[in-house]
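Worked problem 6 (solution included).
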Amino acid sequence: MSKTGEKIGAGVGGAVGTATGVGGGIAAVSAAGTTVGLSGPGIISGLAAIGGGTVLTGVAVIAVGSVLLAGAGAFGGYKLAEWLKRRPGKNV
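Solution. The predicted structure is:
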């Protein structure tokens, strides 16, 4: 496998991590607040609950979580592609 395969692995892993982070963030905001759901009050109460009382902190927590999951996914995809490349007797 070439460097292109490793880049593809990192890209796919990053995309999966990003989707997981965004989906997890939406689910957390939807479920965390006093008004459950994705209406205006539901989003505000969910962000405030996640942020310990402030919406801005909740936005920061969700944003950082999404970025961390995207980075972890990209790293995992890169390492998986690297591992596939180094397996003895396997041509991928």
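Discussion: The chain has a mean pLDDT of 88.
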